[in-house]
Every structure is written in structure tokens, then in C-alpha cells.
Amino acid sequence: PKPSVKALANDRVTVTGWVDNIVEAYQSATLFVAPLRIGTGLQNKVLEAMATELPCVLSPHAFAPLNLPSTGHAVVCDSAQAFATAIDDLLNNPKQAADMAQRARMSIESQFTWQAHSEALAQLLDDVRCMKKAKVSELGVFIAHVMKNPPDSVAHLDFVAGIPTLDLSHFTHG
């Protein structure tokens, strides 16, 4: 890490830099904080932290791609002061933090697995296969409808192909 980041280390904050085993790092942490302001798509590090049942404090940029309800899965902050307040609140309310982290883990485990995505893809392909019997124009209307209104089990069609779909078994408790 840069010297400015290393300077943040104190008795309550450990600055590690590179770690050899990210699972151990997640499991030894108290909170996961991702004040991301740039980047594209869903961040696997957020999925991994949630799968580890680690309470998360995230920027809107880090949280939005999850397509989870806006409350109850993470604390979403849009300013430095909001991040500081959320971190203090979660550290001072371990039960609230644990409940939130458990809800997030259950959602991540149900939505971001190969099984969940392959089932959604199979259903979509089956729906398209059934439409082959219809006129070509009707098939076009169906595809346009799916693109605008993806099935409930698929938040974004770019996730259907397994992007990102993780093997979260290394991060979960079971």
C-alpha cells in the first residue's frame, strides 16, 4: 500500500497489503468497507465478504450491482461522514451487524451460485425453445420483452451466463 494508506494503521486498524489467503482475511475481519467510486459491474470482493457473513459498509457504486433490497443487507453510504457513522454504529451494535450480515449471506447464497444461474438460463432457453413454434415476429416480441423485463430469478441478463457466478463454498460457513 501507499505510505498514506500505511499511515492509517493503528491499534484498531490493520493495513495488510497483499494477503496470501483472502478467506482467512475475511474470517478474521470485523467489518468489510468498500467505498468504491469507480469500477464496472459487480465486485466479487463484495460477494465474498457477504458470503463470509461479514457486515458490509458499501458505496452506492459497490452495492447497486447486487440488486438487493436497499436496506437490511449492507449499509450504503455516499460520504466520508456517512461511512464513519455507519462503521461506528455497526461496531457498537454487534447484534444488528450480525443480523444484517446473515441476511446478506443468505441472499448471496441463493442468488449468486452456479445452480441459481443455470436454472434461470435453462428456464430462459426453454421459454425461447417453446417460442420457436410461434411466428418469428412473435419470437422477436418475446425476446424484446425479456430484455426489458428479465425473469424474477435473474436480476440482469448478463448474469445469466454465469458472470459473475462464484463458487462461494470456500467463503460460507457450510
> Strand portion, in percent?
under 5%
Helix content: 40-55%
Number of helices: 9
| Overall pLDDT confidence | 78
Backbone shape: elongated
The first-to-last residue Cα distance is 33 Å
**Helices and strands: which structural class?**
mainly alpha
Largest sheet: 3 strands, parallel
How would you sum up this structure, described in words?
The longest helix has 18 residues, at 94-111. The chain is elongated and about 60 Å long. The protein contains nine helices and three strands; from the N terminus they run ααβαβαβααααα. Mean pLDDT is 78; it is low at 151-167. It has a three-stranded parallel β-sheet with strand order 1-2-3, with helices on both faces. 22% of the residues are buried. By secondary structure, it is mainly alpha-helical. It starts with a helix and ends in a 14-residue tail after the last helix. It has helices at residues 3-6, 22-28, 44-51, 60-63, 80-92, 94-111, 114-131, 136-148, 157-160; strands at 32-34, 56-58, 75-76. Helices cover 51% and strands 5% of the residues.
Descriptive tags:
mainly alpha, about 5% strand, 9 helices, elongated, single chain, three-stranded parallel beta sheet, about 170 residues
Summarize the structure.
The protein is built from nine helices and three strands, in the order ααβαβαβααααα. The longest helix is centred in the middle third of the chain and has 18 residues, at 94-111. The relative contact order is 0.13.
